From TrEMBL:
This is 3-hydroxybutyryl-CoA dehydrogenase. Residues 1-171 form the 3-hydroxyacyl-CoA dehydrogenase NAD binding domain. Coiled coil: none annotated. Residues 174-269 form the 3-hydroxyacyl-CoA dehydrogenase C-terminal domain. Gene3D superfamilies: N-(1-d-carboxylethyl)-l-norvaline Dehydrogenase, domain 2, NAD(P)-binding Rossmann-like Domain. The lineage of its organism: Bacteria, Bacillati, Bacillota, Bacilli, Bacillales. Pathway: Lipid metabolism; butanoate metabolism. It comes from Alkalibacillus silvisoli. Belongs to the 3-hydroxyacyl-CoA dehydrogenase family.
Length: 278
């Protein structure tokens, strides 16, 4: 998600710094941005001038403290683990300028809770993007208890400049889209577990029958099955039984089959030209 958000931000003309603990991941993200822009030009989705300027706007760093000290808007996109988000937001809060906004790309965690990790809760907000970021048009905006109107308005305008549509959602576990997506993805795993249909046919049915851009199993592999399981566990704890994770999903995560990032999830990505369900 971080690389996708950084790509869209830089392509929109914002000076953007992508921060990660891994230099190899940063280099991979940089190369991915170049390839994505080139594909966009070829398909007529990206202007040549935008693609040329992209690399002037996109920078990488492993130094969170220095990067945040020079930022007006910090968008945190680490995994949905409260302790990890707390560490990143506390660090950003300590080093960022007083006017800087701290946004979280959380899909489930309370922005009020996230704001409590900082000394500027009025400038903390949830800014939830969707995968793949350069394709999906929506950004959910969720304010915490102390988030100011000014902060929310700036996030609306920033998302608009990135070419996104926005919806403002009241703070509640899972917001709008994560609650629906988690249910659909979990039910798809139940159907796969029960032998209702193959993974390919479940995804094809949802895409062609319900007009989804991606099937729920494909989407799970894209965002990471561990991330999907984390979200479901959180919703199960906060909203109840209907979000209990499918046993097959738990089994895949235990086996290390996390999706695209590990080369294998519901589908096998060892040969990107031919996805084979195992």
């Amino acid at each position: 998600m971080g690389r996708g958000i950084a790509y869209v931000s830089a392509l929109s003309g914002f000076q953007t710094e992508l921060v990660d603990v891994s230099e190899s991941q940063l280099q991979d993200a940089y190369e991915h941005a170049k390839k994505t822009a080139a594909k966009g030009v070829k398909r007529g989705k990206v202007k040549e001038k935008q693609a040329e300027q992209l690399l002037d706007h996109l920078h990488t760093s492993i130094d969170l403290e220095t990067s945040t000290s020079q930022s007006d808007l910090i968008i945190e996109a680490v995994p949905e683990k409260s302790d990890l988000k707390q560490h990143v937001l506390k660090t950003a809060d300590q080093h960022a300028p007083k006017h800087a906004i701290l946004a979280s790309n959380t899909s489930t965690i309370s922005p009020t809770e996230l704001g409590s990790y900082t000394k500027r809760p009025e400038k903390v907000v949830a800014m939830h993007f969707f995968n793949p970021v350069h394709v999906m048009k929506l950004v959910e905006i969720i304010r915490g208890l102390e988030t100011s109107d000014e902060t929310v308005e700036i996030i609306h305008q920033t998302a608009k400049l990135m070419g996104k549509e926005t919806v403002e959602v009241n703070e509640f576990p899972g917001f709008v889209t994560s609650r629906i997506s988690a249910l659909v993805g979990n039910e798809a795993f139940h159907m796969l577990q029960e032998g209702v249909a193959s993974a390919e046919d479940i995804d094809k049915a949802i895409k062609l029958g319900l007009n989804y851009p991606m099937g729920p199993l494909e989407l799970g592999d894209l965002v990471g099955l561990d991330a999907r399981l984390n979200n479901l566990n959180y919703l199960y704890e906060t909203l109840g039984e209907k979000y209990r994770p499918a046993p097959l999903l738990e089994k895949y995560v235990k086996a290390g089959r996390l999706g695209r990032k590990t080369g294998r999830g519901v589908y096998d990505y060892t040969d990107e030209n031919e996805l084979i369900k195992r």
